[in-house]
Amino acid sequence: MKREINVWWALLPLVVMVVVMILTVVVFEQEPHIPLIVGTVVAGLVAWKHGFNWKEIEEMMYKGIKLALPAIVIIMLVGLTIGAWIGGGVVATMIYYGLKIISPSFFLVTIAIICAAVSLAIGSSWATMATIGVAGMGIGMSMGIPAAMVAGAVISGAYFGDKMSPLSDTTNLASGLTNTDLFVHIKHMFYTTIPGLVIALGVFAYLGKDFGSKGFVSEDITKMITDLQEHFVISPVLLLVPLAVILLVALKVPAAPALFVGILLGFLSQTFIQGDSITFAMEALQSGYKIETSNEMISELFNSGGLDSMMYTVSMAIVAMTFGGILEFSGMLQAIMNQLLKVIKSTGSLVASTVVACFFTNATCSEQYVSIVVPSRMFAKVYTEKGLHSKNLSRALEDGGTLTSVFVPWNTCGVFILATLGVNAFAYAPYAILNFIVPIISIIYAFTGFSIVKLTKTEQMEILASQAEEEAIG
Fold first, then answer.
1. Per-residue pLDDT at 167
2. Is residue 2 assigned to a domain?
3. Which of 224, 254, 277, 344 is the most interior residue, by most CB within 10 Å?
4. How far, in Å, are 17, 20, 398 from residue 42 at the CA level?
């Protein structure tokens, strides 16, 4: 017989997982997979103790993995894309022209703005980071800028566009789950996200001024340009490859087929423009591009990509979602959320609790989408009861869910960034300015009342009646 899981039992798997994670990652400097498996085992034992049988627990894990399958498909395609674009000379060409055009002083600001514009146009932070971001890492590191700093600028720009684009899946998810008009939702996010971007660009401008004055930079850039020309055929024609992918996604072609076109174009570029054999081009897709050079920067940047390089990320996503699946579908996560709801007394504490709950879900369920779905279900009625418009909830979900996913190393977003940009969450976290400043702004607004929109009594009663009807049907 199944029994309701109380908050203390629900917290046990999380506490065990966090303790083992700290010991494993910080003390022993090992990977986070095992702590998540330990957490999964403890969560399974807690569920079993409360009346769930093995078949039900197994089904919970499968449901969790199923939530991550779309992300896993994209992760694998991104590995193929990076291998094809490096082999085809696409990344080298983007870096070559970037080094010629962009000043080191303004690089961080420039790459953040470019990533924001591209992500706004295509609605995908992942596609932006895997294309423009990869090239940006190469350009920035060639200028002597630390990798973590460049990654922070790329992430800030990419997530601005992802959050504000009407083509973004998370933006549509947040507005849809809260029954908020999409463009009303986007317009309401202007209040937190635009100031966040301005602050981020100001910080990047301040950080970047130190790099323009370093005398060694120009020599390093000249050497990098020469080495790129020596190892790759550089041609403006190759810029059509990323432009084709951006155009396809902007035309609302789904990410998977759009990336497949990019992979095909990269493969053809490697065989017909770079002159490599079909065998070598296929190896680049499978195990990544291989290059022998005395230039350490070239070696670091271009010996990468391929399907194999993403298997760490794929395994992380699967392990994380087995843990998250048990927490979600056994009711443990809801037990914790219910306790959180008891401390909510004001609008400020409600929005702050929503933002914290989204981050908590990102850390425990390891998936950005779940961090929007679960809190939206938990808080929808509370917002209405307090007379708050649904767009306050939809904004808080994105401020706390979409943006904070990058700070959790074992979240699918954190592992994707590590696999794509080559920088771990602990390193880039201080420089992902937009991602941590927007949640802070959101909470400040809530406590001051700025941009918080109230419902009329009539609207409130109508929505409460609708929610009650939905609960009765459910």
1. 67
2. no
3. 224
4. 9, 12, 30
